[in-house]
Amino acid sequence: MTKLVRRECPNCKRDCPISLFKLRLNQFVPVNPTYNKNWVYSLGFPEETEFDFVKCSACDFVYSQSRLNDKLNYDLYHLGIDKDKSLAKTFSIQKRLKHLSLWRKLLSLSASFGYDLSQRELKVLDFGAGWGDFLSVAKSCGIKVFGLEFDERKIEFANFQGIPLGNFEFVEKHAPYDIFMCDQVLEHLDNPRDELKKLHSLLNHKAVGFIDVPNFETKNLNSLITKINEGEMPPKSINPWGHLNYFTPSSLRAMIFDAGFLEIEEQLHISNLKKEKPLLQMMRTGIKDYLQNIVQKPQANKVISYSALHSTSLYVETKS
Predict the structure, then answer these.
(1) Cβ atoms within 10 A of the Cβ of 318, count?
(2) How open is the CA angle 289-294-295, to the nearest 5 degrees?
């Protein structure tokens, strides 16, 4: 059985790729600190094995041309990623503050759409829940939480903490949901367009949520390709096994609109800049002028859209 499966474009489903660059196994494995290196090298791939990153000539979407077969992909997340290192990331103060900020924003948006906890309880879905850390922040009196996850280690851990996670059939049983989270998930999926439509099918008519992916806007990606070709090691976000899809703000918008969502606003993430300065201070020290130069025209009356510096993050609602 072949270890790799060739992919068609996950955006338009055509198979007309243009090669952009290649990464060797010994380039992307060392920069991923949660990888179990012994498991990776037990697969038998020579260290010089090259993996191709391509752009669709029909729609310009960028993606990894091959993925691990279904069994190896399952094993990657259950054996190839170190459990303790992965879990440790969920306990960082920065990540908890991020979750608190996101949850506050989502609650505010739900209130603006007329949801009232005094009238009925809210149901929250994390679509790709990981260890259940966002849902542990959201869970409270009057709010029921559920998460979609396929890693059995994460499901077992979260369920032990009182955070119910399970497969698609599990979350479908508890639908519909009023608020949802899809944070750094779509880049991992073989068919993100189809999965977004599945997500939409689980939601209430006026559900609100947050969708976040790494930003590989053309200028950013070209700069990274140049550095890699000059001998620099790639960032861990470029990974032909774990990150199959490379979104731009426009390609993410097109995909979520097609799946039945409307954009409310875009959240700025600038985690690649100095973290000592808060956002407002950064805005006062010159970044505001830069952001004004890259602002995009709203695509609808309700849309507030910016090109994020590090990741593309959209607050969305379901279409009427």
Answers:
(1) 19
(2) 95
Closest by Cα among 309, 190, 182 to 249: 309
DSSP track, 117-169: TTTS-EEEEEET-TTSHHHHHH-BTTEEEEEE---HHHHHHHHHTT--EE-HH
Which span out of 17-21, 90-94, 308-312 was modeled with the highest average pLDDT?
Answer: 17-21
CA distance 144 to 291: 38
In three-state secondary structure terms, 108 is helix
Helix (H) or strand (E) holding 246: strand 245-246
Q: What is the DSSP letter of 47?
A: T
Which residues have C-beta within 8 Å of that of residue 61, sequence separation ≥ 6? 9, 10, 11, 12, 55, 245, 246, 251
Q: Which residues pair with 262 in a beta bridge?
A: 317
Report the percentage of the chain scoring pLDDT > 70. Answer: 84
Q: Where in the chain is CATH 3.40.50.150?
A: 92-214+260-268+310-318
Q: What is the mean pLDDT of the chain?
A: 84
- Quote the CA–CA distance of 16 and 90 in Å, as a whole number: 39
Place of tokens 């090298």: 41
pLDDT in tens, 226-262: 999 898 999 999 999 999 999 999 999 999 999 999 8
Go through the chain and tell me how many residues it has: 320
Task: Report the amino acid identity of residue 39.
Answer: W
Total Cβ atoms within 10 A of residue 45? 16
pLDDT for 276-318, tens place per residue? 333 333 333 333 333 333 333 333 322 222 222 345 566 777 7
First-residue to last-residue Cα distance in the chain: 46
Give me the CATH code for the 92-214+260-268+310-318 domain, please.
Answer: 3.40.50.150
Confidence bin at 266 (pLDDT 50/70/90): low
Question: Measuring CA to CA, how many Å separate 32 from each of 64, 90, 169?
Answer: 17, 16, 32
Mean pLDDT of the 80-93 span = 91
